[in-house]
Structures are given as C-alpha cells and as structure tokens.
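2.7 Reproducibility. Because tokenized structures are sensitive to small changes in the input, we list the exact sequence used for Putative phospholipid ABC transporter permease protein MlaE, including any N-terminal residues retained from the expression construct. No trimming or masking was applied before prediction.
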Amino acid sequence: MPDQDAQFELDQSGPVPVLRVMGDWTIQTIGPVDAQLRALRELGDSRPAIVDVSGLDDLDTAGAYVIELSLASSPTAPARMIGDHAVAGRLFNEVRKYVGVKPEIPPPMPVWQELLDRIGRSVVDVYEEAIDTVGFFGETVVAFGKAIANPGRVRWLPTFAVAESAGLNAVPIVVTLSFFIGAVIAFLGKTILQDFGASVFTIELVGYAVLREFGVLITAIILAGRSDSSFTAQIGSMKMTQEIDAMRILGLSPMEMLVIPRVIALLVMFPILTFLAMLAGIAGGAIVTMITLDISPTLFFNRLNDNVGVDQFWAGMGKAPVFAFIIAIIGCRQGLNVESDVISLGQRTTASVVQALFMVIVVEAIFALIYMELGI
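Resulting structure tokens (single pass, no recycling of outputs):
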C-alpha cells in the first residue's frame, strides 16, 4: 500500500497537552511536517508530555526520533504513551537516548602538542611493527630449517610457480633497467672524469658501481615493488576469504603452505636476477664507453678484469640472499596480517612495498659499512 502522509495535532483541551500522531511516520513521509514540528520544539517546557499513537500506522527510527524531539521527554522522565502500537514503545525507548545529546567536541590542541602526539604515536607504531617483524622472522627461520631438514614437506609445485611469476617474469624489466643504469653511470663518469683527463677510468667506475652496488640494488628495488605487493595481495586475499583459517582447521601450517615456498623461490631466483642485472649493467656501460671514448672491447674488459676483479662481483652477490629473505618475509607477513576488509588489503599492500624498500636501503647501507670496515 502507498505511504500515508504523516499528520499530527496538539490537543490542549485537557490538563496536559497531548500530541496525536496519525499516518505513516517514516523517513519518506516526515519531511512535509518538519516545519510544523519545529513550532512544537520551540515551546520549551510547555511541549506535550503525552503522545497518542492510536492513529499511527507505520513507524521507523527516523519518525520516532522527530516525535521524541517534539515531546517534553528525557531518559529520566520519558513521555507517556497512550494507545496501542506494535513497535512504537520500543522505538521511542531506543531513540530517547540520543535526543538532546550533543557530541563532545574535544578542545583544540596546540600545533606543537598535536605534532608531538603524532610523533609519539608513530614511534610506538614503528616499535610494535619492528617487534612483530622480528617475531615473524624467527618463525620463518624455524620453518625454513625444518624444510631443509625434511625437503619432502616442501610444496615444490607452488615454489616453482612463484619462482616463475616473481623471478622469471621479472627478467625483462630487471635487465632493461640495469642496462640503462649502466649507461647512465658511464655517461656521468665520462662527463666528470674528462675534466681531469681521466676518462679511461670510467671503465672502473662502471665495474665497481654495477657489480658492487647497483646490480643487486636495482634487482631488490624491482622485486620489492613488484613481487612483494604480489605476495601480500595473494596471501591477503586468502585471509579475507578465510582460506587460511580453513588450512589451520585442517591441521595445515600457513607458514609451510604459503611462506616457505615464496622464501625458497626468491632465494633461488634473486641471485640469478642479480647476475643478469650485472651483465646488463656492464653491457650498457660498455656500449656507452666504447662509443663516447672510442675504446675497444678488448681494452674495456681487460681493464675491468685487472682493476675491478671478481671480488667486487662476489661483494654484490653476497647481498642477494639477504635481500631475498627480507623481501619475502615482509611480503608474506603483511599478507597474513590482512583483516577481513578491502581497505586493510590495500593498506597492507602499501605497507609491504614501503617497508621492503626501506629495509633494502637500510641493509644496503649496513653492508657498505661492513665492507668498508673489512676493506672489501
């Protein structure tokens, strides 16, 4: 049946004013009587304290709220209701809690105090995040040790699938970026060193930069942005659809089922990608050096072998397993921390990439200090 218009009348014939409501009082019908109801609200303490619902048909919380606003009613002294209605009494009791309640507005906070508050909260969040990450790192090391001791428990098919998607499919972008990084280093070295008459040392600059730093660093940055987000999104989606809860019910460990295959895949593929990145970077630097300095390939590779040496290659390759472990752990941990909503998935994916990039740069700096102290 179509909605009936909300109507009311104020009966002041008796000793106490009575508000009679008729028709449907719902969110669709109360708009036309709002202006008339305002006059009742302006009566103050003279507002009616009795409501007659004998003629009331449909009622929802919006209608009950505007009726309560027009009554001299409070949680301690509720208005009296006369007449029978299926839900009116219950709805009036519910909305009465919110009539006349004003939201508490916190006092304005000075800028310096708000800044200190945000800094403090950020420090606490970083501390808690670091503690959780260290704990997850320990769990992963234990699970990885068990996998090494018992290779039959490793899920090799998903491991190969992750190695293909996270490692093999990343070869084109890793090689391309490393090639251009090597070319840029050669251009920069040639431009700066020719002012000192030492353009030929561009070869050593390319060798040291690509083999020692940029080969492994570019690979880590690409995988942190490309594969880490993929790990978090995949595991987070499984967490949202309760697949991980189902694994636990079946007695399966999410660490063995999801984390260990990704860790193994990155530990295998990261050094391979780093090696390809080094080759591409050297190739880019060699092409630019040969073109701009008119150096033969024989001279380039002889100087690279004599003055740079294979120790710089191993200095860069030694970082690869560490970066692979860090990237895999961060991506899987953020995925397992996803909650049951899409917003959490987006936040955790973003946090995964940011944390991985941050840790890659920090660990790279630590390696630089260690190599400097050891004279490598």
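The CA atoms of residues 204 and 241 lie 53 Å apart.
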